[in-house]
Amino acid sequence: MKTTILFIFAIMLGLSSAQNLFISSAQNLFISEVAEGSSNNKYFEIFNPTASDIDLAGYAFATVSNAPTTPGVYEYWNDFIMGATIAAGDVYVVCHPSADAIIQAECDQIYSYLSNGDDGLCLTQGDEVEYFIQDCVGDFNGDPGSGWDVAGETEATKDHTLVRKSNVIGGNGGYWGASSGTSADDSEWIVLGNNDWTNLGYHNLVMVTEINVDASSITVGSLYIGGGDTGDAQAFPMVDNGDGIWTANVTFSQLPGYYIVLNSPTHAYDWGTKEVLTGLPCGDPLNYNDRTMTLDDYYNGYKNITFGNCCPAQFCVTGGSLYAYPVVKINVDASNIAVGTVGTLYIGGGATGDAQAFQMDDNGDGIWTANVTFRVSRTFFGDYTALGLYTILNNASSAYDWGKKENLTGLPCGDPGNNNDRTMTLADYDNGYKNITFGNCQLHGPCYTDCVKLRECYNTAPCSCGSTNLTCISYKTAFDAVPCCA
Prior knowledge:
This protein is 11% helix and 29% strand. With 486 residues, the protein is mainly beta. 44% of the residues are buried.
């Protein structure tokens, strides 16, 4: 699969086959600031948004000078100094040795050949032959003139300081055009004036995620999100939606990050009112049994939980039925098969019912859709990972016509211990939908042809698509390394 990815992105970036470049899937280091000022007042800054220190051994910054000898290929490979690390939430600054004293005071490593505005710079991971592109300012494709345009500012990489916006949490993977943008709204960068170093030496990261808490099983005065990376015990007051679900938009300074739910704290340090997750898998015993907000949660845009346990919202109510009935929208790409003479696909089996449990609707574009209900025992949430099993059937003629089910034998999305059925996870439920392709493990094809559909299919954070769909595809790969099947 690496060979396929390399070929696709080598075409996109105009890379030489002499270098094995891969697009990074690591959501860690990125360039947070770069300055090209008067005289030798030049630097770039790398930010570590994670909760752990990162050793820079194995990282490097690759550069070109003006027009590269071979378009698409770096000219200079520059290692970081031995022993260099970036602490969690901190920055690492590379500056010109003759830069102003203000810059020198924050500088961790000197480098004499920083950009004059028209020299591409990329943060990489690997070695000179096989490496990942983490992030870039500019590119290796040719001399842009005096500099590259950024956020609608002409030649903004020259005689300006560029600061990464606080809601950007990862590098651009080498896709500079999608990162630089065409306006202040769609760019990942803020363009400051010449010799503006007010943000040097630190970077503010702001990540906001909606948290929905099911508190229907407890008596509530008021609920708060707090602790960990969010603040004190009253950091984020929650709003009662009137149905037992409480909601707040919560800001994290880093991800993964810790948080907890508190019931009616009377002051900022009233930790005795926090939910008790001791011994439960969603409580981290090394961090006061707080919950963890992951990058995937952030990409989804929200997190649904239940006060005091690890079930998603509206699952772990006390009393009443022994079963919960979550509903997930399933979209099936059947463009790779001939749907039977009756022309009907079904979702069935496992936790959904018989072979004709849920008849699917043809959207007219090869995608079939159904809202599928899973019958799940409330005691099933002991592992907190899945709702249950299901499969797709092509033109099943009766409730027990299992011969029409898709064949997933030997494929990773088929469970060999359960008739090679698929598994619907709690993460899928949190997303609200699942996009699949009949008979294989690929995500459905139309997601690759339209940027909006791509985001819907992959549940990524919104991206600036640029001028081609390929840019949008690149965002998916940079986010979580799921190979493109197009």
